């Protein structure tokens, strides 16, 4: 009995060893390549990882995947017979990627040691930035470092200024003028005439008091070069979030301030069919001690109409904001916001939500 058991055990081991020798096996010479220091200006670099099939069956590479779009792999896409050689090539693009890098490539195949992980590393020496890099936006022969000025949060009583750096990349002088400037914005170029290759500035001043608006607002003005015709593509966008300045209120004034208090801030309309509309009224109360003023009511989408029933609410008085959501052209889960700007020092900005599901009509 003991001899039979030993014979059976040896038979299993023999079959297992034989099966292993029959499988495909990738044997790489190396699995890591260090490029050292490379210059971004020199462009892409590449290396080849060579391997030998040391098994008894052909190696078939199914997939090679890099961890980054900056690394492009290619490989032997035909079966590699036993004793045959194959490769995996990795091309690394250093463009706009200064500094050290360490990327991996995963090789998936029918090899017994699949997956195999290859790695490339190195350090990219950044190229000197060009005029186009520094001044990204182009209007005629003038290049600008930016074509949008975000004033972010600004008090309704404030005047703030920002500057746009510009350069004349042409071979002739360019005179700089402006068109369609909103009354609350002042603009001037320094100098007014830019010589070839000369740098200058556009100084923009924003008077929030003259804007007479609240919350997030967007304006535009336009460059006019050499007294040319109006071109809508020459626009510069100015944005700001205007809020009331409560910083100078005394403790007594704060104690007597209005206080906006909503009974709910979110409404779920459930499920609607595309094309239907839903109306809901958000009720609120002035729980403060002086008149509550609704400065602004804004919806996040043109599909949502909003209307407060009154904009001045006495202490203890209630009011409503009527919201109508039109589902035309909408489908799936919907979530629209309504922003309320008021003179409540504690809650000058309140956000309401109307949510639900819009299904397509049955055919």
Question: Would you write up a description of this structure?
Answer:
- The model is unreliable at 1-21 (pLDDT under 50).
- Strand 26 (332-342) and strand 27 form a beta hairpin.
- This protein has three domains: 24-125, Immunoglobulins (Immunoglobulin-like, Sandwich); 131-243, Immunoglobulin-like (Sandwich), CATH 2.60.40; 251-359, Immunoglobulin-like, CATH 2.60.40.10.
- A five-stranded antiparallel β-sheet has the order 9-10-12-16-14. Strands 11-18-17-13-15 form a five-stranded mixed β-sheet, with no helix packed on it. A five-stranded mixed β-sheet has the order 20-27-26-22-24, with no helix packed on it.
- By secondary structure, it is mainly β.
- The protein has four helices and 27 strands.
The fraction of residues in strands falls at over 45%
Number of helical stretches of at least 4 residues: 4
The percent of residues in helical segments reads under 10%
* Oligomer state of the chains in this structure: single chain
- What is the CATH architecture term of the largest domain? Sandwich
Number of domains: 3
Inertia-based shape = extended
């Amino acid at each position: 009995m003991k001899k039979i058991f030993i014979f059976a055990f040896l038979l299993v081991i023999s079959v297992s060893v034989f099966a292993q020798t029959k499988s495909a096996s990738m044997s790489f010479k190396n699995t890591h390549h260090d490029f050292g220091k490379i210059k971004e200006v020199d462009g892409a670099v590449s290396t080849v990882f060579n391997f030998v099939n040391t098994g008894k069956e052909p190696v078939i590479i199914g997939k090679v995947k890099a961890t980054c779009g900056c690394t492009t792999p290619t490989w032997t896409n035909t079966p590699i017979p036993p004793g045959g050689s194959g490769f995996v090539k990795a091309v690394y693009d250093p463009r706009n990627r200064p500094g050290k890098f360490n990327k991996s490539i995963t090789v998936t195949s029918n090899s017994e040691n699949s997956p195999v992980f290859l790695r490339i590393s190195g350090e990219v020496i950044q190229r000197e930035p060009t005029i186009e890099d520094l001044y990204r936006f182009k209007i005629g022969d003038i290049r600008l470092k930016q074509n949008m000025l975000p004033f972010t949060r600004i008090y309704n009583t404030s005047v703030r200024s920002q500057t746009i750096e510009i350069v004349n990349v042409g071979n002739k002088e360019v005179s700089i003028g402006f068109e369609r400037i909103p009354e609350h914005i002042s603009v001037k170029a320094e100098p007014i005439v830019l010589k070839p290759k000369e740098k200058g500035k556009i100084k923009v001043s924003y008077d929030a008091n003259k804007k007479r608006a609240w919350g997030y607002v967007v304006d535009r003005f336009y460059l006019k070069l050499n007294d040319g015709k109006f071109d809508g593509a020459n626009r510069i966008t100015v944005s700001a979030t205007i809020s009331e300045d409560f910083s100078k209120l005394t403790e007594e004034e704060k104690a007597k301030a209005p206080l906006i208090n909503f009974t709910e801030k979110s409404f779920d309309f459930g499920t609607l069919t595309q094309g239907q509309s839903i109306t809901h009224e958000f009720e609120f109360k002035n729980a403060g001690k002086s008149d509550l003023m609704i400065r602004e009511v804004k919806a996040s989408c043109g599909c949502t109409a909003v209307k407060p029933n009154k904009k001045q609410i006495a202490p203890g008085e209630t009011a409503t904001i009527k919201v109508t959501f039109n589902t035309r052209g909408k489908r799936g889960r919907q979530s629209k916001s309504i922003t309320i700007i008021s003179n409540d020092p504690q809650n000058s900005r309140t956000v309401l939500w109307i949510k639900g599901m819009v299904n397509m009509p049955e055919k």
